[in-house]
Amino acid sequence: MSHAFLGGALVAAQLLLVLGMACALLRMLRGPRAQDRVLALDAFYVNAMLLLLTVGLRSDSVLYVEAAMIIALLGFAGTLAFAKFLLRGEVIE
Amino acid sequence: MRRWLPHPLMAGFLLLVWLLMRGSLAPGDWLLGGALALGLAWAFGKLQPPRARLRQPWRLLPLALRVVYDIVRSNLAVAGVVLRPRWRGRSGFVAIPLELEDPYGLALLACIVTSTPGTIWVDHDPVRRVLLIHVLALADEAIWIDTIKRRYERPLLEMFQ
Amino acid sequence: MSLIEALPPWAAVLVGVLVLLGAGFACVGSLGLLRLRNFYRRVHAPTLGSTLGTFFMVAACVVAFSLAQGRPALQVLLIGVFLTLTTPITLMLLVRAALYRNRVEDGQSLAAPEPGDDE
């Protein structure tokens, strides 16, 4: 019974996270400014990282945790680079 | 001691990260992690960071608990703002005069303000000593100035200045 | 589904609740990206996912993997550490970039914006 609950909770959590990713994606497409898109990209990868953790829980593999860690670090570096680029004020939209 | 271990806190943190990542306490991990931590702490010293003077470090604990409590509370508040069908609150910038000048104290304050949903650090003017933050649910500027100064700046002043 | 079946019933319920809470906060945060009206308001939303959203999910992973493997699985904690260290930096830099771009475009001086509403 409680295991069925956990299985259902994991699926529901994955749906919620995919919904979150969809929201971020929509904001990324809509803009309107470049900073909105970068912010949405940041939220997108955080959601993707959490989704990887739920996949790891479902498939009993710590490997996904390591992948999530790499996403967390690379996503940070990527967003930082974008923000720095915007700070130069030389992006033509 | 200072010569061989110039940044003990940094080296300790790096060693901890290494051991957590490896998930084991085998002698080889201590050795490799220790070597990496020493090397990286030495490289960190080459960046010539300003010296931190932290008085009464145990005071960090009540501050951390307070920040965790505030993060939970403002998480719920921001979730409420997002989920309410028609939210018509004000939001805007608030200017806060600061007494804190230590770079590490300011960095910690920046992390606290930004990590708490609903408030974000925008700009700090070191000459006029004014901090500018943006607040999502801004009812009254005076309350926010008072909150930041009393809840966070006071303990940071006591520790860093 | 071996990990799920290896958990004792109380832990299965606990992990399920934690996972739902974490995903819920992350989802509400991303929803805020769509629903809030201007950039400075939207900046506040994703913090939900990177604070409580990540906290609950990391807690669920620590409980589940520790019980399933029979020894503490603490490397998941590093994700929380990294995110709490990095999120403030990205957000602050993004806000500053937005401020800079707005000022350059409006042809205003590079003075600080006036306190008050952001409309």
Count of DSSP-assigned helices of chain C: 5
Helical residue percent of chain B? 55-70%
Rg of chain B = 20 Å
Give the spatial strand order of the biggest sheet of chain B.
Answer: 1-3-2
Unreliable segments of 5+ consecutive residues of chain C: none
Give the overall form of chain B: globular
- Mean pLDDT score of chain C, rounded? 82
The string of secondary-structure elements of chain B, in order, is HHHEHEEH
Outline type of chain C: elongated
Amount of beta strand of chain B? 5-15%
Average pLDDT of chain B works out at 84
Describe the structure.
The complex is a heterotrimer of chains A (93), B (161) and C (119). Chain A has 93 residues and is an all-alpha fold. Chain A is 86% helix and 0% strand. In chain A, helix 2 (34-59) packs antiparallel against helix 3. The termini of chain A are far apart. The relative contact order of chain A is 0.12. Chain B has two domains: 8-47, no CATH class; 57-160, no CATH class. Chain B is 57% helix and 12% strand. Chain B is built from five helices and three strands; from the N terminus they run αααβαββα. Chain B starts with 7 loop residues before the first helix and ends with a helix. By secondary structure, chain C is mainly α. Chain C has five helices and one strand; from the N terminus they run αααααβ. The termini of chain C are far apart. Chains A and C meet through helix 1, helix 2 and helix 3 of A and helix 1, helix 2, helix 4 and helix 5 of C. Strand 1 (92-97) of chain B pairs antiparallel with strand 1 of chain C.
Layout of SSEs?
The complex is a heterotrimer of chains A (93), B (161) and C (119).
Chain A: H1 2-30, H2 34-59, H3 63-87
Helix pairs in contact in A: 1-2, 2-3
Chain B: H1 8-22, H2 27-46, H3 60-83, E1 92-97, H4 103-115, E2 119-125, E3 130-135, H5 141-160
Antiparallel strand pairs in B: 1-3, 2-3
Helix pairs in contact in B: 1-2, 4-5
Chain C: H1 2-6, H2 9-35, H3 39-42, H4 47-69, H5 75-106, E1 116-117
